[in-house]
Amino acid sequence: MSVIDTLRQRLPELPDATGWIAPALAGLSLLGISLMSFTTIDPGEVAVRINNVTGNQESITQPGLALRVPILHSIHVISAAPQTFTMRGDENGDALTVNRLTVRASDGSNFHFDEFSLVFQAKGDEAVLAVADSGIGDGYLQWMRPYARAILRDEFGRLSTIAVSDPSRYGEAGESSRQRLNELLGKHGVFVTQVVTPRPKFNDAYEAAIEQRNALGNELEVIRSNLEMAETERARTLSEVDQQQNKIIQERRAELETALSQATARQAQVKRQTDTYRIEKVAQGQANLSAAQARATELAGALDAKFRAKKAEIDAFRTQPVERVMERLGEALADVTVSIQPFASDATPTRIRLEQ
């Protein structure tokens, strides 16, 4: 018995119900096919649409409805949200949780991290690689376990115990590990966004040494802080001293400028006095010179007259007789005494020398 006959028996009051059942079934079938033709992609998810006939694969990164033709297309949705791969404890858990990371340093000592985390996610534009290499669903998560531990041990194992206890050094090792992981995981459509690097743990003796070094480091920071404060205080003191010295210099400069102006005024006054004295002395000298010249002229005239008188007297004396000359000579020699002591080696001297 067909479905229509069954409905006709159950609905005797609706003998003509078969007129709308067929369209309703067709509509339901069309609605079901329509719903099967769309796949919802939520935020934080990407999808890969595969053409089952040609084998072509296409990544879909925009959230919303993705169209697929039933039988012709297949759509696989994977999570592209950030996820955390953690290494902690002594036993492995799920795909994202494994036992803690232990590393052998370059100097032969061992250290470990209580909890080491890697933040990673699938590349939205390379979801095809993630599905092709890892399969549908969360298969790409399995790539973290074989790569993470090996590369982290390799990078951190390059450091010595002293170097790895320095936060700046093991931070560099974490970054280099992230770059190497991305080189390998990028081929599978996965990339690491962050490496959370905690402080490594050592044996008790070395931990005590680290604590002591940290204490000394804190003391060193205190000393540096004190030095900075001392430098600041020194700069402030120098600034105050400079201000005081500048004030003293300004005051001394003002005093010197005042003294200079006073000295300049005195110099001008002395110069005026000197000029006045020079003018007076020059005028007095000119007057004295004029008087001396007049006196010299007068004396020259008097001497000339006297010379002429003496000359006339001499001329007159030349014309006088010998007796008058001898008389005048006697008058001139009146007060002269002549002492003559004869001395001769012979009895008949021929010359007598008179000494006064």
Terminal Cα separation, in Å? 206 Å
Largest sheet: 4 strands, mixed
Strand content: 15-25%
| DSSP helical segment count | 8
Which descriptor suits the 3D outline? rod-shaped
Overview in brief:
The chain is of the alpha+beta class. It has 8 helices and 11 strands. About 2% of the residues have low confidence.
Characterization of the model:
By secondary structure, the protein is of the alpha+beta class. The chain has 3 domains: 3-77, no CATH class; 79-202, Tetrahydropterin Synthase, Chain A (2-Layer Sandwich); 204-292. It is built from 8 helices and 11 strands. The chain has helices spanning 3-10, 18-36, 127-134, 144-156, 161-164, 167-185, 204-318, 322-332, and strands spanning 38-41, 45-51, 57-60, 64-67, 73-79, 83-88, 97-98, 101-104, 110-113, 115-122, 190-196. It has a 4-stranded mixed beta sheet with strand order 7-6-10-11, with helices on one face. Strands 3-2-5 form a 3-stranded antiparallel beta sheet, covered by helices on one side. The protein has a two-stranded antiparallel ribbon with strand order 1-4. Strand 8 and strand 9 form a beta hairpin. Helix 4 (144-156) runs antiparallel to helix 6 (167-185). It is rod-shaped. It starts with a helix and ends in a 24-residue tail after the last helix.
